[in-house]
Amino acid sequence: MRSVRTLILAGGMAVGAVAVSGCVPGGAPAPPLCDPNYAGACVPVVGYDLDCGDIPVKNFTVVGVDIHGFDADNDTIACEG
């Protein structure tokens, strides 16, 4: 389970921090953060390079910067196949 530190602000100044676990109410795991550079598939935001084999969806759209190189022919369609 991941933990995120959230700042508590008062009057625009940080007055403390709270650790927030990666779960939604009810104990279910939090959904992954999806990279906004892609539409039609949830490409997780990770600190390493992904390949098309890491994504279960094919033929999704690049709508921003293709940081993982999913669109080899630059036609905005990622992981064609």
Topology, please?
Blueprint: E1 3-10, E2 13-21, E3 38-39, E4 60-62, E5 77-78
Antiparallel strand pairs: 1-2, 3-4, 4-5
Structure keywords:
0% helix, 81 residues, two-stranded antiparallel sheet, mainly beta
Summarize the structure in words:
The chain is mainly β and 81 residues long. The strands form two sheets. Strands 3-4-5 form a three-stranded antiparallel β-sheet, with no helix packed on it. A two-stranded antiparallel ribbon has the order 1-2. It is elongated, with a radius of gyration of 17 Å. The N terminus is likely disordered. It folds into two domains: 31 residues, no CATH class; 50 residues, no CATH class. 0% of the residues lie in helices and 30% in strands.
| Total beta strands | 5
Proportion of beta-strand residues: 25-35%
Strand order, main sheet: write it out: 3-4-5
Poorly predicted regions are 1-9, 15-23
User: Would you list the SSEs in sequence order as H and E?
Assistant: EEEEE
Shape: elongated
Give me a quick take on this structure.
The protein is mainly β and 81 residues long. It has strands at 3-10, 13-21, 38-39, 60-62, 77-78.
